[in-house]
Amino acid sequence: MYNDKVLEAFKNPKNVGAMENADAEGTVGNASCGDIMKIYLKIENDVIIDAKFETFGCAAAIASSSTATEMIIGKTLDEALKIKNSDVIEKLEGLPPQKIHCSVLAEEAIKEAIQNYRAKKA
Ligand code: FES
Does the annotation count 102 as an active-site position? Predict the structure, then answer.
């Protein structure tokens, strides 16, 4: 069902685990499957210098979280906000149609973390 790229990201995910003293956190869930994704960010001068995740979900959700954290490290907050689930899917070289929603969690978790960070600063 999954391509090699997705399987590799699922079996050897990058940036897994909680982050101590994170500058921002975002947690989102999918009501239909019950899966949850939490993203932690370390931010300096509006640039994401580190990102980690904890995902209680399917292989596609874990592969998407891993890939999404890799994509946002080094990006400004505005650049990270532009990342769409379709960009994550492209990096993963595709997800099965019934697993597209899992990548949406990654996009939403990033947005949630950044919004929380900006709300905290405001
Ligand atoms: Fe729930 Fe994939 S099935 S995130």
Answer: yes
